[in-house]
Amino acid sequence: MSVHAKADMSVGEMATRAGVPVSTLHYYEAEGLIESWRTDANHRRYDRKELRRVAIIRVAQSVGIPLADVAPVLAALPRDKPVSAEDWAKAARPWQAMLDEKIALMQRLRDQMGHCIGCGCLSLKQCPLYNADDGLAANGPGPRRWTGKAAEQTRVE
């Protein structure tokens, strides 16, 4: 009997419990984000502890964190012992500034977007958010005012 027997799950069980397709588990494993082992009959099995890793991956993806940024966090977690709260906190530390920035951006979007949609002024001359003559283009692409990366607005006349 395998040492994994009590804590392991088949790929189908793991997919069902994690709420992802089997192909997603295979992809995460190919990317080195989760691990499985094989039975003597060559059936793929997952330790239940991999559920936490899949949960972190899914939540991170849902807030826009790319897998390339998830991998180093998961790699920082121990594999040879149960992961403690301290281990999780230490591994997640690199995300703190990035998440704070994302939260601030979402708050600005929430607070400013309603003005544009709900205002109804239909006046670009009076709009406080209007980008006259595309003066922010010199500062780079994208929504400069919402991302907070706008330098002083220059007016091209």
Low-pLDDT segments: 152-157
Strand order of the largest sheet: 1-3-2
- The general outline is elongated
Distance between the termini: 80 Å
Q: How many runs of DSSP E, i.e. beta strands?
A: 3
Q: What is the mean predicted local confidence, pLDDT?
A: 81
Rg, alpha carbons: 23 Å
What class, by secondary structure content?
Answer: mainly alpha
Instruction: Give the biggest beta sheet.
Output: 3 strands, antiparallel
Return the string of H and E elements. EHHEEHHHHH
* Proportion of residues in β-strands: 5-15%
Note the total helix count.
7
Q: Percent helix among the residues?
A: 40-55%
Spell out the key features of this protein.
mainly alpha, single chain, disordered C terminus, 157 residues
Q: Could you explain the architecture of this structure?
A:
This protein is mostly helical and 157 residues long. The protein is built from seven helices and three strands; from the N terminus they run βααββααααα. The protein has helices at 11-18, 22-30, 50-62, 67-75, 85-92, 95-119, 144-147; strands spanning 8-10, 37-38, 44-47. It has a three-stranded antiparallel beta sheet with strand order 1-3-2. Strand 2 (37-38) and strand 3 (44-47) form a beta hairpin. The longest helix is centred in the C-terminal third of the chain and has 25 residues, at 95-119. It is elongated and about 70 Å long.
